[in-house]
């Protein structure tokens, strides 16, 4: 039975302001009318039946309202993003992370982005049934990151150590081990091994995995006794890989299908958080502003066992050394998943060139470690039973006092912060739209969920069935 609503859409539409306000160029003058108009649109949409219960006419009304709100948000943010960000951060004296920043924006500029309560309510729905409020988050962060002062400050804020890492640091320093639940960090002879331990899904990633991996990355970077980081997948319990290590099966598609993969906590935090820290290290002192230079960075080795699919493959260009088992393989099934593969579009171009990058992303090209093209992003291929020794040797070689300065200079040229900032700005918007597109739902249902239903690997980006 259809859920009763507060009022029919036609009645609600008559209560909304007539036309969106025209911006005057005066921030103080424009702020009130813009937020009032956005709030009224949000109220109308929330009073409508749930998406699955709307008539065709109501679907069109909702789409028109979302389009109107998105257009007004873009115009307002294009004019005042720097001013808005300065207010949210008390003149750049505070360093909120993505989720905190969005929460502040919702409180101080109602209607500009969804509130925490709206996002929490949205998270309880499957991906198909979400309203799509995260698109407003993508529009907001696109504008903030495109604004040079605000965007650079936000990226430095994301390079700060997490509160969880700071709380766990002393114990890790004393014991050389940290159990983060879905990840662990173990230090031995100056080499710190960060392992993803998501055996149920062949080391696929979700929001919880991103939080644990960023915490582990922070511990490695903060600990003076950890000279080199090694990223590796833990041994598996899945029958096909029982006792064997697996690097990564990419995004957890089962969680994505059920609406448990978030734009802020997974897709954006992953890129601006732990993966960005692989490249740039930590920002411990922001007093230099845009002149900041990494002051807590370490070299990293990736140890690829079995496979690196999707998000797993996306990480490899950020590593200083990639050691792969000779029976491992790689793929980037972005088209089949319906998403943008993080920053891989930009980073793979440097490593593999335009044509191979397109074959990997658009055509799902699968590469084995022994294929000649794999040498463009894999440094060393060894037998599976020789991986431990090869990884230790690679990490030992990078434990050298001149490595830090050289990797910082390489990264300065290969991935300037300005380029990364502008890419991430557009990524925030495009990924938000893709996350709530009908095509993604169709892709999940037709390509993955139905094909892999019932297997332990059903939630991974393809698992061993690719």
Summarize the structure in short:
With 466 residues, the chain is an alpha/beta fold.
Describe the structure.
52% of the residues lie in helices and 9% in strands. It is of the alpha/beta class. It has two domains: 9-157, Methane Monooxygenase Hydroxylase, Chain G, domain 1 (Up-down Bundle), CATH 1.20.58; 161-465, 2-enoyl-CoA Hydratase, Chain A, domain 1. A seven-stranded mixed β-sheet has the order 1-2-3-4-5-7-10, sandwiched between helices. Strand 3, helix 9 (207-222) and strand 4 (228-233) form a beta-alpha-beta unit. Helix 3 (56-88) runs parallel beside helix 6. The longest helix is centred in the first third of the chain and has 33 residues, at 56-88. It starts with 8 loop residues before the first helix and ends in a 14-residue tail after the last helix. The model is unreliable at 1-15, 454-459 and 462-466 (pLDDT under 50).
Count of helical stretches: 19
Q: How many domains comprise the coordinates?
A: 2
Number of DSSP strands?
A: 10
Class by alpha and beta content = alpha/beta
Largest sheet: 7 strands, mixed
**Share of helix among residues?**
40-55%
User: How far is the first residue's CA from the last residue's CA?
Assistant: 42 Å
Classify the fold: give the CATH topology of the largest domain: 2-enoyl-CoA Hydratase, Chain A, domain 1
Q: Could you tell me the radius of gyration in angstroms?
A: 23 Å
Outline:
globular
The largest beta-sheet arranges its strands as: 1-2-3-4-5-7-10
Enumerate the spans where pLDDT stays under 50 for 5 or more consecutive residues.
1-15, 454-459, 462-466
CATH class of the largest domain: Alpha Beta
């Amino acid at each position: 039975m259809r859920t009763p609503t507060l009022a029919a859409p036609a009645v609600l539409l008559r209560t909304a302001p007539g036309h969106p306000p025209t911006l005057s160029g005066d921030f103080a003058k424009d702020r009130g009318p813009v937020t009032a108009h956005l709030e009224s649109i949000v109220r109308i949409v929330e009073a409508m039946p749930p998406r699955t219960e709307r008539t065709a006419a109501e679907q069109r009304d909702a789409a028109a309202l979302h389009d109107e709100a998105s257009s007004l948000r873009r115009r307002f943010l294009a004019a005042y993003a720097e001013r808005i960000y300065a207010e949210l951060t008390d003149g750049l004296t505070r360093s909120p992370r993505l989720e905190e920043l969005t929460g502040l924006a919702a409180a101080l500029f109602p209607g500009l982005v969804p509130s925490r309560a709206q996002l929490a309510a949205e998270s309880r729905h499957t991906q198909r049934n979400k309203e799509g409020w995260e698109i407003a988050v993508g529009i907001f962060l696109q504008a903030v990151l495109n604004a040079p002062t605000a965007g650079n400050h936000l990226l430095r804020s994301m390079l700060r150590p997490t509160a969880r890492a700071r709380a766990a640091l002393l114990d890790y320093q004393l014991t050389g081990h940290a159990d983060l639940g879905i990840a662990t960090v173990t230090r031995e002879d100056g080499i710190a091994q960060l392992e993803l331990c998501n055996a149920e899904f062949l080391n696929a990633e979700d929001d919880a995995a991103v939080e644990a991996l960023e915490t582990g990355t922070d511990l490695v970077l903060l600990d003076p006794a950890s000279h080199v980081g090694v990223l590796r997948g833990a041994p598996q319990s899945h029958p096909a890989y029982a006792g064997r290590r697996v690097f990564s099966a990419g995004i957890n598609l089962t969680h994505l299908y059920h609406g448990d993969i978030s734009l802020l906590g997974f897709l954006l935090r992953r890129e601006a958080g732990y993966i960005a820290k692989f490249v740039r290290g930590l920002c411990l002192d922001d007093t230099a502003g845009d002149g900041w230079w990494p002051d807590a960075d370490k070299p990293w080795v990736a140890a690829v066992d079995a496979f690196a699919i999707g998000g797993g493959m996306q990480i490899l260009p950020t590593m200083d050394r990639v050691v792969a088992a000779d029976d491992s393989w790689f793929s980037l099934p972005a088209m089949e998943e319906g998403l943008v593969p993080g920053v891989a579009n930009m980073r793979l171009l440097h490593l593999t060139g335009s044509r191979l990058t397109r074959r990997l992303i658009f055509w799902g090209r699968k590469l084995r470690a022994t294929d000649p093209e794999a040498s463009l992003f894999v440094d060393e291929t060894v037998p599976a039973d020789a991986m431990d020794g090869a990884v230790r040797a690679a990490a030992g070689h990078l434990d050298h006092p001149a490595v830090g300065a050289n990797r910082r200079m390489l990264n300065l040229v290969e991935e300037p912060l300005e380029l990364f900032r502008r890419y991430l700005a557009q990524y925030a918007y495009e990924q938000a739209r893709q996350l709530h597109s009908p095509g993604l739902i169709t892709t999940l249902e037709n390509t993955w969920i139905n094909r892999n239903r019932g297997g332990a690997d059903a939630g991974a980006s393809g698992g061993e069935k690719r």
